[in-house]
Input
Amino acid sequence: MNDEQLLRYSRQILLPQIDVTGQETLLNSKVLIVGVGGLGSPVAMYLAACGVGHLVLVDHDDVELSNLQRQIIHTTDSIGTPKVISAQQTLNALNPEVEITTYQNKIEDITQNLTDIDAIIDCSDNFTTRFVLNTFSQQHKMPLISGAALRFQGQLTSFLPAQANSPCYHCLYPDMETEQESCSESGVISPLVGVIGSLQAIETIKILLNIGTNLCGKLMLFDGFTMQWRTVTLAKDDQCPVCVNK
Output
């Protein structure tokens, strides 16, 4: 690292769990972020700020006025702009050293382009995308950090397919036809996505650096209305068609 990088990341390098070696690992990491909306905004901004060297952003939507209540990576001037381009502009201003690759596509259309990924962060808002990401993660043994937020409730977990006992997203939601509510139908309190997205960023950093305790096999639930946290065990489904005998 050069002197400017040592200064930029100095508060992080001071942490004994990270130090210079860990910071260099982050600088050499490549992370896929699917969805640069409510969850993807804080995820992308914090990972760029902390020096993850290459971020791949995937989102096929354009910025709309109704997004701005919670999708803090975008501004009023971004309305009508593809979200990945708007996000790239913000991230470039925040940390011009970070390489940003953008795809204005649905994830299922570009999986063949996604190689050498060190971690996948699911910031999407629909089951179709989540199941595609889960299968991709399992096939390539890439860590998957999954978050969700609706109304006042959020959830977070990680799947580590390189570990034999790790469950997958299909173990959590085995019924692919499960009805899913959306923010446009049910609403969401704005700071909730910041809470869950920030935790996704922390979880990703820990997994990239192989430090601390991760959420593999656990589902963290947050109720912002009552300010209560709880964590439940998430077991691998021995009959799961996605992660068993893959």
Notes: Residues 52 and 84 are 17 Å apart (CA to CA).
